């Protein structure tokens, strides 16, 4: 019992987070799970790289390094790091060894063990089965697990999911990326102790353990609870993002914290965490950017208590699935289900989070049914939690405005661009904050280049006030410009490559001027010149095409000779049309633009003169 109490005291200790964000340059080729684990554990201070952006995911971990990792997983890594020149009971770990303090601490709490000859072999590569054993001991598991080692720990690790997403071979060397994934999986594990009376491992209840009362401690704590919980939000929804400092290009993100899925929708007041700045090199999983993640569930790590206004977000780990559909309806709100693509999908309750142009609201399913009926042809973005239940819906735009940027006059504060009629127009941006968001960065008008295509966030151009939804007067982005071969066009569908998209004459436009000038697409025949040609196109949403641009066929010419019969004179005595008799003795009328040379030696154009035309 004495040993157990020592362990309990150890796990309630906490250590400092990474005080700044981080960025590794050698993790791009790893899986999403590996990246999430590496960046998540780095944000918690459990792992670190080798400097200059190097993490070394393919390198192996030594036993000494593994002892250090277990100390940090146990919540006392910073404390152990201060025990320099600490003697250990191992003959090959002198007090001067860099890891002596970690090895001594991990050994005292039973996380690590040495060899019968009294050595620890700190420089030896740790095997996967050794690493798993050490990690499970952090969660309270001991050699009372049934079966011989290492099969007892391997079986328990698989049962708990600690070895999920890991290519596990017990005797293989512990690769840093695999160690990271196992450590990340361990964080969600409940801390246990071996109950000798029951002969089983039992979850610890810190609120009351035996006859000892521990105050406001947790019941059924997890390994994650070893950390400073004020800086960790593990069950959150990314509520929204906004530009908190346009001059510094600072973005802040607000979250809905401590989501109670059983009472979803009844808890918005009192659980919101105000927007806090996103650190410059904060990690967001899935390769997404701050402007992509609204509505997602996530783990969010801050560099300090987010109650402090200068706190920054250093890690966002996304946890859910997002889908799209243009077939969504509520048939029976009382059953808490929505039909998506003809199949019933359970919702988290009788309310969902509904995103619309420029805002969000908790929406009863009965009210949502009416909204969906009004938008019979609309498309939607749908969010599902880890249990597969739908909790949020966003109505996607049905129209999209675009402009082709030309230049920005910073001195006069005017921007110039094309809005579809082929005419260069000016926009008065004096005193206005116009932000362009692109690949996780906030740009200004001065960063744009001529010819770039831009679109407003919510489909239409509105130059509002700085009190707007995003904290600036306007937010623009670069719509994705796709390309493909135009295969077919009917009255309702346009097929480009292998994909068929909806279109209508209110929101689909066709251009032969590279988007600078376009017209409503009213008839598929308008695309006759583009068939079997590669076109550029912009989608309004995954189901509907907004713009198609193609190059006009190159003009072909031929030389025609003939005798002038008549010349139609326009203003200022200029010839507008010319009638000739050609070499086939046919009378043909031509627009004057096609004439290259005419007249006799004096240059006079008269009946009977010989002319050469390019037609």
| Main beta sheet | 7 strands, mixed
Number of DSSP-assigned strands: 36
Helix content: 10-25%
Strand content: 25-35%
Q: Could you say which overall geometry the principal axes of the C-alpha atoms support?
A: elongated
Low-confidence segments, ≥5 residues, pLDDT <50? 1-21, 210-216, 594-602
By helix and strand content, what is the structural category? alpha+beta
Tally of individual helices = 9
Oligomer state of the chains in this structure? single chain
Write up what this structure looks like:
There is one protein chain. With 615 residues, the protein is α+β, with helices and mostly antiparallel strands. It is 15% helix and 32% strand. It has 9 helices and 36 strands. It has a 7-stranded mixed β-sheet with strand order 20-19-18-23-24-21-22, with no helix packed on it. Strands 27-26-25-30-31-28-29 form a 7-stranded mixed β-sheet, with no helix packed on it. The longest helix has 12 residues. The chain is elongated. It starts with a helix and ends with a strand. 36% of the residues are buried. The N terminus is likely disordered.
């Amino acid at each position: 019992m004495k040993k157990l109490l020592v362990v309990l005291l150890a796990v309630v200790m906490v250590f400092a987070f990474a005080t700044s964000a981080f960025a590794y340059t050698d993790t791009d080729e790893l899986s999403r799970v590996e990246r999430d684990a590496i960046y998540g554990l780095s944000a918690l201070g459990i792992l670190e790289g080798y400097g200059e952006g190097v993490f070394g995911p393919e390198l192996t971990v030594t036993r000494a390094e593994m002892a250090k990792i277990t100390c940090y997983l146990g919540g006392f890594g910073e404390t152990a790091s201060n025990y320099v020149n600490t003697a250990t009971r191992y003959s090959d770990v002198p007090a001067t060894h860099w890891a002596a303090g970690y090895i001594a601490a991990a050994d005292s709490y039973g996380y690590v063990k040495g060899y019968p000859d009294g050595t620890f072999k700190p420089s030896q590569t740790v095997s996967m089965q050794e690493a798993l054993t050490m990690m499970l001991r952090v969660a309270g598991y001991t050699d009372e697990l049934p079966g011989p080692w290492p099969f007892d720990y391997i079986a328990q690790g698989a049962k708990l999911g600690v070895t999920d997403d890991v290519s596990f071979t017990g005797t293989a060397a512990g690769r840093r990326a695999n160690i990271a994934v196992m450590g990340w999986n361990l964080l969600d594990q409940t801390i246990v102790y071996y109950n000798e009376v029951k002969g089983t491992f039992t979850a610890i209840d810190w609120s009351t353990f035996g006859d000892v009362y521990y105050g406001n401690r947790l019941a059924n704590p997890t390994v994650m609870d070893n950390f400073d919980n004020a800086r960790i939000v593990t069950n959150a929804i990314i509520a929204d993002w906004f530009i908190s400092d346009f001059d510094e290009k600072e973005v802040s993100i607000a979250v809905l914290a401590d989501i109670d899925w059983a009472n979803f929708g009844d808890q918005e007041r009192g659980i919101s965490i105000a927007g806090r700045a996103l650190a410059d090199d904060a990690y967001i999983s899935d390769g997404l950017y701050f402007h992509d993640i609204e509505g997602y569930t996530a783990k969010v790590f801050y560099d300090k208590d987010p109650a402090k206004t200068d706190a920054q977000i250093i890690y966002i780990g996304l946890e859910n699935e997002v889908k799209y559909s243009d077939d969504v309806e509520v048939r029976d709100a009382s059953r808490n289900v929505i039909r998506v693509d003809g199949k019933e999908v359970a919702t988290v309750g009788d309310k969902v989070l509904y995103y619309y142009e420029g805002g969000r609201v908790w929406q009863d399913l009965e009210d949502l049914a009416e909204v969906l009926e009004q938008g019979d042809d609309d498309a939607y973005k749908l969010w599902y939690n880890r249990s597969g239940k739908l909790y949020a819906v966003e109505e996607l735009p049905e129209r999209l405005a675009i402009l082709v940027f030309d230049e920005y006059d910073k001195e006069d504060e005017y921007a110039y661009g094309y809005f579809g009629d082929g005419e260069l127009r000016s926009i008065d941006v004096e005193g206005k904050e116009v932000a362009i968001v692109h690949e996780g960065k906030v740009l200004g008008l001065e960063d744009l280049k001529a010819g770039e295509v831009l679109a407003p966030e919510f489909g239409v151009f509105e130059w509002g006030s700085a009190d707007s939804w995003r904290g600036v007067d306007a937010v623009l982005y670069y719509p994705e410009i796709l390309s493909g071969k135009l295969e077919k066009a009917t009255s309702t569908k346009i097929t480009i490559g292998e994909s068929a998209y909806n279109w209508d004459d209110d929101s689909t436009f066709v251009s032969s001027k590279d988007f600078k000038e376009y017209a409503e697409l009213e008839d598929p025949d308008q695309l006759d010149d583009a068939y079997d040609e590669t076109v550029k196109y912009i989608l309004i949403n995954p189901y509907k095409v907004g713009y198609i641009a193609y190059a006009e066929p190159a003009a072909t010419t031929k030389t025609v000779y003939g005798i002038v019969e008549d010349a139609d004179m326009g203003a200022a005595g200029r010839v507008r049309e010319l009638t000739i008799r050609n070499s086939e003795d046919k009378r043909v009328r031509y627009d004057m633009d096609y004439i290259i040379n005419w007249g006799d030696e004096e240059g006079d154009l008269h009946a009977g003169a010989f002319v050469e035309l390019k037609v």
